[in-house]
Amino acid sequence: AMRLPPPMSPKEKPMADAMKKVGPANAALRKAIEGSDVALLRENTAILKDAFKETEDFFDDHKVDAAENIAKDARKLVETIEKAGTGGRWDSVKAEAGNLGKMCASCHGTYRERFDDGSFRAKLPG
Prior knowledge:
Layout lengths: L11 H24 L2 H24 L3 H22 L3 H22 E3 L5 E3 L4
Antiparallel strand pairs: 1-2
Helix pairs in contact: 1-2, 1-4, 2-3, 3-4
């Protein structure tokens, strides 16, 4: 039998929607880095900051401090990336974007669960 996800809670939906924006924003961020495009960088760092703030709030509501801290650190890293990019420090932006990807992977490895239908949900304790 397929293991299907339970219905999404009202608090989970905004975080899930925000997370779906991270992949495209991160891809656009890489494009901004390749082209040294400050406008594209700003547009997508705004999306990322909002998504990570939504994730922080979700994990705060569920008292998962470690995941909340990862999201908070990711948001701060995106702020650092934005500042470096607007300052023309593209080598720094590229390095920090790699660190951001590692941060996302570490959180997903611990706090994201994949179901048999291909969907994902936050993995919460208890």
